[in-house]
Design goal:
Strand order of the largest sheet: 3-4-6-5-7-8-9-10
CATH class: Alpha Beta
Oligomer: single chain
Number of strands: 10
Radius of gyration: 18 Å
CATH architecture: 3-Layer(aba) Sandwich
């Protein structure tokens, strides 16, 4: 695979990426604003709380890809709240959508990182997925949200509403969109899938065509849930794989299309799973989404 070239390497200090003038004010949102949840001073040393299997090559490719796209005149970050809304609630300053553009007019996905509703682990749990989806032609967004079970859902509802409202400018097809998420991000995707954006303050919009979930103990579902794909490691100490399996079996019994994968020896937070037994799960998830189209 050709890696996107750019100014950053594994030895680049994280602070240099955040402060690179090409990213303007949003460079700080590439990494957790709650910075005690990550460690390492360079891209190659980055570690995130509750996550394993972080691939430094992926991290470097993500920031170089965004740098190249901005340098080429693309918009890669969108505010989802107005200046007035951010002034009224300063926590909304730390939100927005990173856009990994695919083919014009292609369907879209929103990827939601986990972080225990305490921070946003995007560099492992949503940016890699969004980049890979964009390589397959899909228009992929990664949401930076306000941590907290309620605020995350409000921000995701707002993000979906924003994409629908600006679909023409963004050049996305809103039919059969998908929601992706890992850990806490998977709960967000599932809640929005079950109840729709309007339930969390968003516009009255269709449910997603598919929900793609990784490693979460979320067990809530409805009879009208969207088709759902899920995967998890068998050695996950946070999300029990049998809990995930039971939920999908119950949904399947209702006639909802589901697909479930569990991987021996794998722990929590493996992201794309590059170099692990889970490698290639994203291809299966994309195929599952495509079956619903």
């Amino acid at each position: 695979m050709v890696r996107e070239s750019g100014p950053f390497t594994a030895d680049t200090p994280i602070e240099d990426v955040k402060n690179d003038p090409v990213f303007g004010d949003y460079g700080r949102l590439l990494f957790p604003v709650e910075d005690w949840y990550y460690s390492g001073s360079t891209l190659g040393e980055l570690q995130l709380t509750w996550y394993g299997n972080i691939d430094p090559e992926e991290t470097v490719e993500i920031v170089n890809t965004l740098w190249q796209r901005v340098s080429g005149g693309e918009t890669v970050f969108y505010d989802i709240y107005t200046d007035e809304e951010k002034a009224a609630d300063p926590e909304k300053e730390d939100t927005g959508l990173f856009f990994f553009k695919g083919e014009p007019g292609e369907k879209f996905a929103v990827c939601n990182a986990g972080g225990g509703f305490a921070y946003v682990g995007a560099m492992q749990d949503s940016f890699p997925h969004a980049l890979e989806l964009s390589k397959r032609g899909y228009n992929a967004f990664a949401l930076i949200y306000r941590p907290g079970a309620q605020t995350t859902c409000e921000d995701l509802a707002r993000a979906i509403s924003f994409i629908f409202e600006n679909a023409q400018e963004l050049e996305v097809d809103t039919d059969c969109y998908s929601l992706w998420g890992g850990s806490a991000g998977a709960r967000m995707a599932a809640w929005l899938g079950s109840y729709g954006p309007a339930a969390f303050g968003g516009d009255n919009l269709p449910q997603p065509g598919a929900v793609i979930m990784q490693y979460t103990g979320h067990s809530d579902y409805t009879e009208s849930d969207p088709p759902t794909f899920a995967c998890v490691g068998e050695n996950d100490g946070i999300a029990n794989w049998r809990t995930m399996e039971r939920r999908l079996q119950a949904m399947s019994a209702l006639g909802i299309p589901t697909e479930f994968h569990h991987y021996p020896g794998l722990r929590h937070g493996f992201g794309l799973g590059t170099g692990t037994v889970a490698e290639g799960w994203l291809d299966q998830a994309v195929a599952f989404w495509e079956e619903q189209m």
